[in-house]
Amino acid sequence: MELLELHQAVGSPPESTIRMYTRKLDDLGLLERRRRQEFPATAEYRLTPAGDSLLTVASLLHDWLREAPGGPIQLGSIAGKSGTKALIGGWSSSIVRALAACPLSLTELSMLIPRSNYPSLGRKLGAMRSAKLLEPQPGDSRGTPYGATEWLRRAVIPLTAAIAWELKFLPEQTAAISPRDVEALFLLAIPLMSLAPEVTGRCRLAVEIRSGEPSTYAGVLLSIERGAVASCSSNLQGETHASVSGPPVAWVRQMNGGPRGQLDVSGNQSLAGTVTTALREIPKT
Q: Cα 257–147–233 angle (5° rounding)?
């Protein structure tokens, strides 16, 4: 589209706004500006492969918002922006990682995440509660414990899609995946897995954070009994029946429905395949 066409297609915002966004998208490599070889000379904008791929991430985010507990939310609405901002704030502050494991009160969170000050944690926790990403849980601790809702757990789908996109198209601008990121993704996803009653065993899911001698890994160790996850620990030490490992890109692709066969499997091949397939096939709704 030419700039005038694009301006009209997005609702005719102020010209300064449309120019600011086209410039920003161009800087990120999502949009490109080409000059037509004709008279009079005009410029047109088109999506790059990175921009086109980002639409898939937006679609998954939109699908997730439409499954909100209070009813469907539109991607560009105020509620959509608030919910997405609350999710990002909870993710970046490690609140998601902490509450994906078990319900905690604000006081307990502040002790677990000392680098964030109490008021900031309180605001982010409040935003997540308002967005229905968290819900109160019974408990004997001081203060009300809050746990992840199923809707927050299903956010693992747009989150893994966004991570995969960033690693592919903005590798130099993307922060390295940390052990906490890895644990958070697994802890969100694992309760959503569907396993057959005959599945039993211990399986290690490990992500190679840093390669070298020796390599550094993060992940979870699952104990499965008759199709149910009996325990899930971020301590990877211990005896297992099966182990699955690989670099971050391979894992986020696996969890996001990308190509198979990029992970290293040892031990019980059937158990490893069953668990990774269950992670891959987490329902979107």
A: 60
Residues pairing with 266 in the sheet: 243
**Residuewise pLDDT in 10s, the chain (285 residues):** 888 898 899 899 998 998 899 999 999 999 998 887 766 667 889 999 999 999 999 999 999 999 999 999 999 899 999 999 999 999 999 999 999 999 999 999 999 998 888 999 999 999 999 999 999 998 776 789 999 999 999 999 999 999 889 988 998 888 888 888 999 999 999 999 999 999 999 999 999 987 667 788 999 999 999 999 999 999 999 999 999 999 888 888 888 777 778 899 999 999 999 999 999 888 665
**Which residue in 231, 250, 253 sits closest to 240, CA to CA?**
231
**Residues 262 and 254 sit within 8 Å (Cβ to Cβ):** yes
Task: Give the position of tokens 């004997």.
Answer: 140
Q: What angle do CA 175, 179, 185 make, to 5 degrees?
A: 90
Residues whose CB is less than 8 angstroms from the CB of residue 79 and which lie 6 or more positions away in sequence, other chains included: 68, 73
Question: 93: closest CA among 187, 178, 8, 206?
Answer: 178
Q: How far is CA 274 from CA 188, 200, 205, 256, 281, in A?
A: 18, 10, 12, 16, 10
Instruction: Round to whole Å and give the CA distance between 140 and 152.
Output: 24
Which residues does residue 2 pair with via DSSP β-bridges, in sequence order? Answer: 44
